[in-house]
Amino acid sequence: MDAKDTTIATLTDFYGNYALKVSNDTTTLLISYIGFKPATVPVTHAKNLKVVLQPDAINLKDLVLQANRLSKFSTLAKIDLDLKPVRSTQELLRLVPGLFIAQHAGGGKAEQIFLRGFDCDHGTDVQVSVDGMPVNMVSHAHGQGYADAHFIIPETINNIDFGAGPYYTQHGNLNTAGYVSFSTYTNIDKSKVQLEAGRFDTYRALAMIDLLKKNKDRQSAYIATEYYYTNGPTLHPQNFHRYNIFGKYNAAITPNTQLIASLSSFSSNWNASGQIPERAVSGGLIDRFGSIDPTEGGNTERHNANVILVHTFSGGTTWENQAYYSRNRFSLYSDFSFFLNDTIHGDEINQAEKRNVVGYLSRLTQKHILAKGSLQSIYGIGVRYDVTTDSKLAHVVKRQFVSNIQLGDIKEANVFSYIQQQLHLHKWFVDAGVRLDYLHFNYFDKLHAQKPAQAKAIISPKLNIQYTLNPQMQLFVKAGKGFHSNDTRVVVANEGKEILPAAYGADAGFILKPNSRLLINMAAWYLYLNQEFVYVGDDGHIEPSGKTQRKGVDMIVRYQFSENLFATVNVNLTNPRYLAAAKGKNYIPLAPTATSTGGLFYKKKEGLNGGLSYRYIKSRPANEDNSIIAKGYFLMDGSVNYTKKSYELGLALENLFNATWNEAQFATEARLKGEPYPVDELNYTPGTPFFIRAKIAVMF
Fold first, then answer.
1. Residue 205 parent element (H or E)
2. How far is CA 140 from CA 143, 202, 272, 410, 540, in A?
3. Regarding beta strands 454-470 and 428-445, do their DSSP bridges make them parallel or antiparallel, or are they unpaired?
4. CA–CA separation, 328 vs 324, rounded Å?
5. Residues 98, 116: contact at Cβ < 8 Å?
6. What confidence score (pLDDT) does residue 4 get?
7. Which of 73, 74, 95 is nearest to 84 (CA)?
8. What is this structure's pTM?
9. Which residues is 326 bridged to in the sheet?
10. Distance from C-alpha of 80 to C-alpha of 78, rounded to nearest angstrom
């Protein structure tokens, strides 16, 4: 929001609240936001002014480099989300520049995440949330920070906020490589029913129903449901079922008090063909889409309640209170080593748990208008408490229980507080904060002698400095400390030593907008992690990996050729290394060294729309001495849609050139039935071949 013909400006917060002090009795305000028509509003002695903008075409010229806020990537994500509508949580995650994912369990398991030179496993080093509610599960049966986002219905997502590195005061545990925060629509303009069908017996049905069409400035509500089924490209059908339901209610209790509440429920079950050794395919034992153990798979469910109450005081101070609850059930059957340990029955395992999570956050935001700028102070306190029962790792044969390897109950608490100060003075913007996290770990081992509970606190300072030379260029530096907690079983077994590995990072770069059509963001960065010390859920062992460092360069480019034609390019280069290992044996397995995504998109409000997009990841070491290589790939995807006010027809095409590629890849020691010795080589899940799906949607 800008006061017309002056240099006074302000920005709304997440809930649309703003404060602007003007000296004239009558002022004309210019209000703008990317994707909406600008509006001019005359104001006379107004203390409370509500403005509703009308939707408009996305235009890169509306993206303005401003000195009075810390530039973030959420606006870019808004553009990308509009240019490339998504129909799965996998596609949502792929919108984050530099983030790659891999699925290796039939579609029902959380994706493996790669970001900034990290193999984040399923979320160990990237914090994921939706509407402020955490997605990651700490001390999970399958791995630390397990982030299964399949309970998110992609059409409900309004925006994606993300940041690379440990520089963000409001984000704590697991925010080392970065964070991803999804936001759902508060209300929807139209109801929608959508049907999709594609190769490999793939079907999807979606319904989004607007429940309160009138007086949306006072209250709104909608419900979204999704059903998904596929057999996948593997020879053994996946028989994958997923059910989702999500409801959200928004009410203005008073002119200054807003209530936002949501409920969701999710369940899925599936079969998986698992990872296969290269020698089994090259030797003709199985087809590339075959399986050594077709009894892999699992089932999972998650149910959430999330309530947010926001009050804005007369002086512009905002007080936000949030409470959430999640109930999780998880059971996964996997077989990575086949007949390595049990040469008769095989090595299939079952990882399972039952979990309840409760959390609370209180955040106070104060805005102060200064003579030549502004100061925003943010104070937050909160707690998260995970109670997990019967977290187990068991030996099974064709999903039939044989014996427990590990079994116990976990209680883990994270109490935190933080202070954040955002100072704007002329061309300078300084964001400084400090965060205190206290964690308490308790593991009730049902198979071995009990060890005492452990607790530890960690302080994480953050500093972001930004200088806006002019409306065409900003310079920035970032520095901060973050951490990922270790699994409670590691913490207790290790008697509290090295249980909160800290990450220290720094970024330096610029944002350049030389004209209304082009935006370039470049950053050089460094990150040091003092211990990659994790719990390996697949065999129940502790794996200390030592100190690491990562150095890299990130580049983001957006270009608008015309009113309707856009191009996007993201390039990420990283040099990840262990510090204590000898040269040549200091590679970090599976850590990406070069990735790039981008595309060309044609976007109109009505009529034909479409695009071509690519994703590329370079071949990289799969083990410490680089003797086993995880193979890179280059894939092209496409889409074409015909959109009208009341309906839409579309085609989505994946892997347009039918490339042969490996999705998940690991250097694995495994033994096939009848082999006298185990073999350490590349095991992988095959990437999906050419895939096409059609959709029809009706809006009303």
1. strand 202-210
2. 5, 30, 20, 9, 12
3. antiparallel
4. 13
5. yes
6. 46
7. 95
8. 0.93
9. 304, 357
10. 6
Residue closest to 266 by CA, chosen among 239, 248, 242? 242
- Stated length of the chain: 700
Provide mean pLDDT across the span 134-150. Answer: 95
Helices (H) then strands (E): counts for the chain? 4, 41
pLDDT 10s digits, 70-98: 777 767 777 888 887 777 888 889 999 99
168: which 2 tokens? 């963000």
The neighbouring-strand residues paired with 424 are 374, 429
N-to-C CA span, the chain: 32
Q: Are strands 126-130 and 178-184 parallel, antiparallel or unpaired?
A: parallel
| Domains identified in the chain and CATH numbers | 1-56 (no CATH), 74-699 (2.40.170.20)
Phi and psi (nearest 5°) for 562? -150, -170
572 forms beta bridges with 554, 595
Q: Are 202 and 153 in contact (CB under 8 A)?
A: no
C-alpha Rg value of the chain to the nearest Å = 25
Helical residues (DSSP H) of 461-589, grouped into ranges:
488-493
**What does the pLDDT read at residue 18?**
66
Confidence tier at 333 by pLDDT (50, 70, 90): very high
Q: Give the pLDDT score at 546.
A: 84
Q: How far apart are CA 165 and CA 589, in angstroms?
A: 20
Residue 271 region by backbone torsions, left for phi larger than 0, else alpha for psi between -120 and 50, else beta: beta
Instruction: Return the closest-CA partner of residue 348 out of 296, 410, 307, 277.
Output: 296
Q: In this predicted model, which residue has the larger pLDDT, 587 or 107?
A: 587
* Phi, psi angle pair for 532, to nearest 5°: -90, 80
E strands, 398-547, are 400-425, 428-445, 454-470, 473-483, 502-515, 518-529, 533-536, 541-544
pLDDT of amino acid 5 = 44
DSSP string, 481-493: EEE-PPPHHHHHH
CA separation for the pair 630, 662 (Å, rounded): 8
